[in-house]
């Protein structure tokens, strides 16, 4: 009888071990299945092309996630990057629809407070340059604007070019600005306009690249161009010094040029292994090289 009980006990123990082993494999397979190989970024249209470029380099170098880290599945690397403005990036992290939010401005207090474990990293610095089409008469006669003049122009107080200088044509000034959800909108309002509203006549453009495209297409327009995008189109635009301060790399990095903004990535809580691996790649020499090549000023 004792022998029979012992056999039953051993048998039950074997069943328990097999059951536990099976659960462990199930959890591993479930965890692997849960990660489809994609990391999601959302937000700033200024930062999006840079993250996409770094993602392309990452994918070409490794191909599948197991080549990045042996603990990851052998699934194709996919980095999804969508735009919609800095505000949309912060909201996507809050909603859980993106791993990282891309912001081309400082995060707002309410955005930080909304996340349980807010995290961020600054990857670069950008600046907003007051610029016109190379065919614009103002660009041919002036190399500098004052902050007061910019406020007068964008508030609509000065609405025609000859109101600035009698020698300029009498055409109406076309104002180009970013939409309210864009990081550039907040930076321009805070650093230049203050409590003064931008004119209702201003044309809101949903991306920085779109704004610069319109600027290059309209000789009577003025707008603010991202330093990175303006550098790529310097033969088509005329950028102005602001209050005597040139928007040079040194002046922007030193904080002397007044209309600068951080390029940051935000997330909530701890990162997954894959997310951490890609973030490390962004911070690597290759990542910072691409940030510089895209016309921004990389930050270590």
Tell me what the structure shows.
It is a single chain. This protein is of the alpha/beta class and 300 residues long. It has two domains: 34-125 and 262-298, Periplasmic binding protein-like II (D-Maltodextrin-Binding Protein, domain 2); 127-260, Periplasmic binding protein-like II (D-Maltodextrin-Binding Protein, domain 2). Helix content is 44%, strand content 21%. It has helices at residues 2-34, 48-62, 65-68, 86-95, 109-114, 137-141, 147-155, 183-193, 208-217, 227-232, 249-253, 273-282, 285-293; strands at residues 38-43, 78-83, 100-103, 118-133, 144-145, 174-178, 203-205, 221-226, 237-239, 241-242, 260-268, 297-298. The strands form two sheets. Strands 1, 2, 3, 4, 6, 7, 8, 9, 11 and 12 form a ten-stranded mixed β-sheet that branches. Strands 5-10 form a two-stranded parallel sheet. Helix 2 crosses helix 13 (285-293). The longest helix has 33 residues, at 2-34. The radius of gyration is 26 Å and the shape is elongated. It starts with a helix and ends with a strand.
